[in-house]
Amino acid sequence: MTDTPVTLITGGGSGIGAATARQLLGKGQRVAVLGRGRQRLDRFAKEVGDPDRLLTLQGDAGEWDEVRSAVAATLKRFGRLDAAVANAGWATHDDIAEGDPAGWREMVLTNVLGPALLVRAALPALKESKGRIVLVGSVAGHAYAAGNIYGITKWAVTGLAENTRRQVTADGVGVTLVSPGRTETPFWDDFGGLPDGVLLSADQVASSIVFALDQPSTVDVNTIIVRPIGQPV
């Protein structure tokens, strides 16, 4: 059991994070998930049978002390860390011309600072295990959209992924940016409903994350962009 891979996922209580955790647990791996809501974490744990291989941690991905504590708790529970998945993120669904700046700070802290904090906290353990980092970006971080504040945060994640890769590749640590298009997750809850057209499922995006994590130690898949059929940009 001590050699069984361990992955820490932020935003792991629902959506893409929970789907990734579920797939890794299904492969017999050990998983720690960090999320803000204890009820959501407990519900997810119950859905997967509350196995000993799952550790749920309540905390904010945008707060350094809480991210650092999550990494420490994962190492204490499982004794190692093989992968860190920075998945936590959300959107204010507004624009720079008419949006409400009151929500922008928290979005930037979660979407941009959060992944950087996870890398910083997890990197010593990942260097030891020759592990992997996955940053969940967005198609919005590759395609321009007029005034889209959320898109700005995801462009930052695109840059963070490559900057991180250049920092850690000599240490044997892999870095993958997974950028999904429209996906059916709680992301849309504050939008007023799902957008029109075909959407990816959280499981489909999670499969891309797991694909990156499953690569041989000498292979580093750096960027995966996955859109539903019919999404033009």
Q: How many distinct domains? A: 1
Uncertain runs: none
Sheet of most strands: 7 strands, parallel
Give me the strand/helix succession.
EHEHEHEHEHEEEHE
Strand content: 15-25%
CATH homologous superfamily grouping:
NAD(P)-binding Rossmann-like Domain
Please tally the β strands and state the result. 9
Helical segment tally? 6
CATH topology: Rossmann fold
Overall description:
- With 233 residues, this protein is of the alpha/beta class.
- It has a single domain (6-226), classed as NAD(P)-binding Rossmann-like Domain (Rossmann fold).
- 41% of the residues lie in helices and 17% in strands.
- It is built from 6 helices and 9 strands.
- The mean pLDDT is 94.
Give a short overview.
This protein is of the alpha/beta class and 233 residues long.
Q: Can you give keywords for this protein?
A:
233 residues, alpha/beta, Rossmann fold, seven-stranded parallel beta sheet, two-stranded parallel sheet, 6 helices, 9 strands
Strand-helix topology:
Layout: E1 6-10, H1 15-26, E2 30-35, H2 38-47, E3 54-58, H3 64-78, E4 83-86, H4 104-129, E5 132-136, H5 149-168, E6 174-180, E7 183-184, E8 200-201, H6 202-213, E9 223-226
Parallel strand pairs: 1-2, 1-4, 2-3, 4-5, 5-6, 6-9, 7-8
Helix pairs in contact: 1-6, 3-4, 4-5
